[in-house]
């Protein structure tokens, strides 16, 4: 393998091409995830199962992240990002293809097994794509870049429920699986096309050694400690686990919640409203790109996580239309949480970057825990009361965000605006004459700004 580079070593054309190609992957798993939540409600009708049993799909999908993420990070540390993407797309297509016989013979267990394989593939893609986008350029705009790329995941997430509301819940399709097999055959074809495109397209490899060297030149030796002492990453994994668990629990029961509010919403219309919730989520993600251009990620996450906690209680106790309004607000404030936790947890890891990325992505496995708990409460009490489970996840996320804000304030003073820590450290060393000046701080900031503008 050729010697690796850091994100700031790429030319403008290399950077733009790599960014666009990897961003296309976010649409891929966003579409799969969007369909998953609607299938949850659809299978309750087709197979006559309860809400708790229907969350086995979430258990398989997100449990795959918990199982496969460590292997994905080890694989990419050895073979690089590009081969990791090939592996992920191959598993993704394989799992989607086997939806066909599962639908043909109407085997719910088959759907659960196929969902696990798809989850393994998407886990591999997330370790590669999230990490690659985060390190692809100036650290100052890592959270903004990742929010922008994940915005396309949001676009795909509401496209899935819109397709489902049109084809899964209307007419005879409300009680059959005929259309499910065709949709997933198309999903498999999408994965195959992307795999071919990545095979023929060059993708610069960004290595941990190159990232470590960039840090060391600025006098930062954060990666000199062993990985188990990278506490911002370890606690980031905890926060990601609880947040994703909360997000998935909210989404998996959203169709049921909307249809049970007693304001004339049936399952088909509830599915459409759920797609509007996903649109709200996506809009929130692109709004987050703009906010993160100026506001410190840890500080903004603190505000958003507190808002999520408040609106989760609003969904639980708000009657009728007020509860629906709180649900929409909850989707908006969830928008930036995943990418910001990822960038906070993996920043300044140097040689530990790929390992840290695997750990944070493993936090997606939290989506396997919260939905069954929420589903059990929904079955035995009410769907509205089940939203106290997501509330607990948001509270833990808020603790991490506030803790990171305090930690930053103690080490370098409170900051409202986002900064490039590596550039700042280099500038400090330059002022004391300890290192030879390579670029002025304004030049680095200008380069980061150009990258941000190109992405948008």
Describe the structure.
By secondary structure, the protein is an all-alpha fold. It has two domains: 9-206, MFS general substrate transporter like domains (Growth Hormone, Chain: A, Up-down Bundle), CATH 1.20.1250.20; 210-443, MFS general substrate transporter like domains (Growth Hormone, Chain: A). It is built from 20 helices and no strands. 57% of the residues are buried. Pfam families: MFS_1. Its main location: membrane. Keywords: Cell membrane, Membrane, Transmembrane, Transmembrane helix.
Features:
Growth Hormone, Chain: A; 456 residues; 20 helices; mainly alpha
The rounded Rg comes to 22 Å
Estimate what percentage of residues fall within beta strands. Answer: under 5%
In the residues, how many domains can be counted?
A: 2
Q: Helix- and strand-based class? A: mainly alpha
CATH superfamily of the largest domain: MFS general substrate transporter like domains
Describe the SSE topology.
Blueprint (H helix, E strand, L loop, with lengths): L11 H35 L4 H4 L1 H24 L1 H17 L1 H6 L3 H28 L6 H26 L10 H23 L7 H10 L13 H22 L1 H6 L7 H26 L4 H21 L2 H15 L2 H10 L6 H10 L7 H11 L7 H25 L8 H12 L8 H15 L1
Short description:
The chain is mainly alpha-helical and 456 residues long. Helix content is 76%, strand content 0%. Helix 1 runs antiparallel to helix 8.
């Amino acid at each position: 393998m050729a010697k690796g580079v850091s994100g700031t070593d790429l030319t403008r054309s290399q950077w733009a091409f790599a960014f666009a190609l990897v961003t296309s992957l976010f649409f891929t798993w966003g579409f799969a995830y969007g369909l998953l939540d609607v299938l949850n409600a659809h299978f309750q009708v087709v197979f006559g199962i309860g809400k708790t049993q229907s969350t086995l799909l979430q258990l398989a999908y997100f449990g795959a992240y918990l199982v496969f993420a460590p292997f994905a990070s080890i694989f990419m540390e050895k073979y690089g990002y590009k081969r990791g993407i090939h592996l992920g797309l191959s598993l993704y297509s394989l799992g989607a293809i086997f939806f066909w016989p599962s639908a043909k013979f109407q085997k719910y267990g088959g759907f659960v097994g196929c969902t696990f394989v798809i989850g393994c593939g998407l886990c591999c893609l997330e370790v590669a794509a999230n990490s690659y986008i985060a390190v692809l350029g100036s650290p100052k705009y890592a959270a903004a870049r990742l929010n922008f790329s994940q915005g396309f995941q949001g676009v795909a997430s509401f496209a899935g429920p819109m397709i489902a509301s049109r084809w899964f819940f209307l007419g005879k399709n409300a009680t059959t699986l005929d259309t499910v097999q065709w949709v997933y055959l198309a999903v498999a074809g999408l994965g195959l096309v992307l795999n071919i495109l990545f095979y023929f397209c060059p993708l610069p490899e960004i290595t941990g050694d190159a990232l470590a060297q960039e840090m060391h030149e600025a006098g930062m030796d954060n990666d000199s400690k062993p990985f188990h002492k990278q506490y911002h990453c370890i606690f980031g994994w905890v926060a990601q686990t609880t947040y994703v668990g909360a997000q998935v629990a909210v989404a998996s029961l959203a169709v049921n919640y909307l249809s049970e509010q007693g304001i004339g919403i049936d399952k088909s219309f509830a599915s459409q409203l759920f797609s509007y919730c996903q649109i709200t989520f996506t809009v929130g993600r692109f709004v987050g790109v703009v906010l993160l251009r100026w506001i410190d990620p840890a500080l903004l996450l603190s505000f958003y996580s507190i808002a999520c906690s408040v609106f989760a209680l609003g969904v639980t106790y708000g009657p009728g239309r007020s509860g629906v309004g709180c649900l929409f607000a909850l989707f908006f404030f969830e928008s930036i949480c995943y990418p910001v936790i990822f960038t906070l947890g993996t920043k300044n890891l140097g040689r530990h970057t790929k390992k840290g990325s695997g750990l944070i992505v493993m936090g997606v496995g939290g989506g396997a825990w919260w939905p069954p708990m929420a589903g059990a409460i929904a079955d035995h009490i009410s769907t509205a009361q089940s939203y106290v489970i997501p509330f607990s996840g948001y509270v833990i996320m808020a603790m991490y965000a506030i803790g990171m804000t305090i930690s930053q304030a103690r080490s370098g003073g409170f900051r409202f605006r986002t900064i490039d820590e590596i550039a700042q450290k280099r500038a400090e060393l330059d002022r004391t004459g300890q290192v030879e000046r390579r670029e002025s701080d304004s030049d680095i900031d200008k380069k980061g700004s150009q990258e941000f503008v190109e992405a948008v």
